[in-house]
């Protein structure tokens, strides 16, 4: 009950934020929700099913480029183009998963394969002039006001509430998945694949379901990214730095939990912005300072909070026995 109440209060605070937030703060909150959403999508694959993907930006880029290209070249609105982006990403996820699991790749070898696919796609898109190549693909912006959900054109507040709805939606979906038979199968193979197989669980299908679903949901985040920033570059959309930013939130917040990706994004994004602002205010400009901060944060979490912030916070608040949220962090992957 306590966790449900805390969740409702957090949702109410986010819903009311645009009423008092400055334009800059609102933009930071959009990024917080964006990474909370992507972290939750990645968490399905790693936190629930135990499949480490270090090239998850592949699906962000595919979703972004597919929907943006349809909008720019043919005027297809975002509400329709997003289905193409999600489909392309799910097919790519199914291809990566099938290739990996048919040949028994797992652990670090599977992670390396995901990086290889992401890098190959990045280089490929750099040489596709029809999609802008290295020069980038730009979406036309007629206005930044009003609410146009069909074309995903409108004010920053509109994008904020879209991001909030996406984050709340994927939270509820993950909560449902954890309590469903597929959720139990994922956690079984995460903990011990051989034992799960001995129990009759179809390992290949379960893994493939996790990869495909995670890819499709991640692509939806890519659609949001494309229409919010209105500019796509291969290095930006498919680059490794974005993959690292996606996975840091769940790791810092608590891998395999529902609140972990949200808490991780709430912690990392504002702190990253603060570090950037502070260094610029002091006249100390250094490329990669935010990435250095993220790396140090990750080292600290691994050293002092190996389970992540959320499980420790639950214990401090004595919410361990209150599992009405279906958080699913018992035995979370470490």
Radius of gyration: 20 Å
What would CATH call the class? Mainly Alpha
Task: State the helical fraction.
Answer: over 70%
Which whole number gives the mean pLDDT? 90
Q: Give a quick account of the main beta sheet: strands, pairing sense, barrel closure.
A: 2 strands, antiparallel
CATH architecture: Orthogonal Bundle
Would you give the CATH topology? ABC transporter involved in vitamin B12 uptake, BtuC
Which residue ranges are poorly predicted, with pLDDT under 50 across at least 5 consecutive positions? 330-334
DSSP strand (E) fraction?
under 5%
- What count of structural domains? 1
Number of DSSP strand runs: 4
Estimate the global geometry from the Cα principal axes.
globular
* Helix and strand element order: HHHHHEEEHHHHEHHHHH
State the helix count: 14
Order of strands, widest sheet: 1-4
N- and C-termini, Cα separation: 27 Å
Structure description:
The chain is mainly alpha-helical. It has one domain (2-316): ABC transporter involved in vitamin B12 uptake, BtuC. The protein has 14 helices and 4 strands. It has helices at residues 2-20, 23-48, 57-74, 78-102, 108-126, 156-178, 181-191, 193-198, 203-229, 234-238, 240-253, 259-281, 289-304, 309-316, and strands spanning 137-138, 147-148, 153-154, 231-232. Strands 1-4 form a two-stranded antiparallel ribbon. The longest helix is centred in the middle third of the chain and has 27 residues, at 203-229. Residues 330-334 have low confidence and may be disordered.
